[in-house]
Design goal:
The chain is of the alpha+beta class and about 375 residues long. It is about 30% helix and about 40% strand. The protein has six helices and 19 strands. Strand 14 (about 310-315) and strand 15 (about 315-325) form a beta hairpin. Helix 2 (about 10-35) packs antiparallel against helix 3 (about 40-60) and helix 4 (about 125-150) packs antiparallel against helix 5 (about 160-185). It is elongated, with a radius of gyration of 42 Å.
């Protein structure tokens, strides 16, 4: 029975040659039997039968896999490049005055709203300066009003009135300065965002312009990348841009092109492009390295397979092809990936059958049985 199945798996010419080989083999054994006698012939036959039986025991049963036929269709024509992500807004908060930090009013890594007080310096001196300036302003205001009335009655000179008016303006300026110094002692968040880690504690004395903490707005992120000058007409504002980052390998972040630079860089012969990506869950962060993909057209008559059929070993990609009921590993070159399908640039032919599930059980030459489609060797056996 095994010999019959074996013959069915061969081409007609191969089957004829195999039958001739078997006939010649039996005739040879018959001739040897005549020369050696029945006992020796019986031993040879028993050994041959035992070997055939052992070979049958050693062959593993067929592996059960799922497979598909290599398809021909259309895929998106893409421009792939790399870029860097930047926060929608980011600022390093610095001290505007020299003084002692009285209080930190935020949680490191937490969120703050625009206008929230986040750092307070000791401000008793600045509050005192405001009170003093307010007193000087009141005095200057009263003096100006008194001299104005006297000037109306021609009792005071115009010179005295001008001096009083100037003193009033000086007092108003001193009050504004005092209030500004007091405001500098109370640092507020300039926009909504996430606050970073601070390496200075409350009670520390810091100099003016000391970096205190970073505030980042990650509600959306900007991705900057470069496009070769030959593709400058393939990109434009509002075009869809897809981004992948190593931190979230199986996730695609979608945004739009926000701006295209007006000049081409002479050194790289490329143009800089900036996209913006919504980031409601704050997964993306400033400084991430990004793989950027732009859809710039469509390619037809393209081979595609299911993404699950492509395996990778180092930098080499391969698939398992089923031919005559047995598995064979084939190296392939891939292109665009989208909607669970992979473009095959080289390594396969249309109509070939590739394994989509069960690859871990396979080795070159292993016998397979396809569970989700007709056996590809069935046509050969008919």
């Amino acid at each position: 029975m095994r010999f019959v199945l074996f013959l069915k798996s061969l081409s007609p010419s191969q089957a004829v040659l195999s039958i001739l080989a078997v006939v010649i083999g039996f005739l040879s054994l018959w001739f040897v039997g005549l020369k050696l006698g029945k006992p020796v012939m019986r031993s040879i036959c028993i050994a041959a039968m035992s070997g055939d039986k052992q070979a049958g025991l050693n062959e593993r049963p067929a592996r059960v896999v799922e497979a598909q036929t290599v398809n021909i269709g259309s895929v998106s024509k893409r421009l792939n490049t790399v870029g860097n992500m930047r926060a929608n807004a980011m600022v390093i908060v610095k001290s505007e005055i020299s003084g002692k930090i009285a209080e930190l009013l935020f949680t490191e890594g937490g969120t703050v709203k625009k206008g929230d007080l986040i750092i307070r310096f000791e401000d008793a001196e600045y509050k005192g300066a405001v009170l003093q300036a307010e007193g000087e302003l009141e005095n200057a205001t009263s003096n100006f009003e008194r001299i104005s009335k006297l000037h109306e009655k021609n009792v005071e000179s115009s010179k005295k009135l001008d001096e009083a008016k100037a003193s009033l303006k000086v007092a108003e300026g001193k009050l504004q300065q005092a209030k500004a110094r007091l405001e500098q002692a109370n640092i507020k968040a300039p926009f909504d965002g996430t606050i970073g880690i601070m390496n200075i504690n409350a009670g520390a004395f810091v100099q003016a312009a000391t970096e205190l903490v970073t505030l980042v707005d990650n509600s959306s992120v900007k991705v900057s990348f470069k496009v070769p000058e030959k593709n400058i007409h393939d990109v434009g504002v509002g075009q869809i841009v897809e981004v992948k980052v190593s931190a979230f390998k199986n996730q695609i972040f979608t945004g739009t092109i926000e701006a295209v630079d007006a000049k081409i860089e002479k050194e790289s012969h490329s143009v800089e492009v900036k996209g913006i990506i919504p980031n409601p869950d704050s997964l993306l962060r400033d400084g991430l390295f990004a793989n950027v993909s732009l859809i710039i057209g469509e390619k037809g008559n393209t081979m595609t397979v299911d993404e699950s059929s492509v395996e990778r070993q180092g930098e080499v990609e391969f698939v398992w092809v089923i031919e005559r009921g047995r598995a064979e590993r084939k190296r392939v070159l891939t292109g665009t990936r989208e909607n669970g399908q992979v473009e095959i640039v080289a390594g396969l032919q249309p109509g070939q059958i590739v394994v989509t599930s069960g690859q871990l059980k396979l080795s070159d030459g292993a016998k397979v049985r396809i569970s989700n489609m007709p056996d590809p060797s069935a046509k050969i056996m008919l």
